[in-house]
Design brief:
- It is a single chain.
- This protein is α+β, with helices and mostly antiparallel strands and 94 residues long.
- Helix content is 29%, strand content 32%.
- A 4-stranded antiparallel beta sheet has the order 1-2-3-4.
- The longest helix is centred in the first third of the chain and has 21 residues.
Length: 94
Amino acid sequence: MRSARRAAATCLATLAVASAALAQEPKAGSADEGLLIEDLLKSGWKVAGFTSTFDNRSAMILFSHPAEMSLVQCLTGYDVTRTPRTYTNCYRLK
């Protein structure tokens, strides 16, 4: 049980660090140009859920806000074949 808690805490800490590191200016073609993970967290949005892909190079993060009726979903990742190597795509789910 103790190791499960430690693993969960490590996973959450990794997600927080990755989210902060991947928050950057939106790229052309983003669904909602003004949504950044960093700005969502600063304005009171909370992580409602997340999942990682099988290769651990990207993650889907779901955000909720008590005063909003919609959710925001973000895909963040790292790809060595792109420049810049990190990417973020956030959009509202209504």
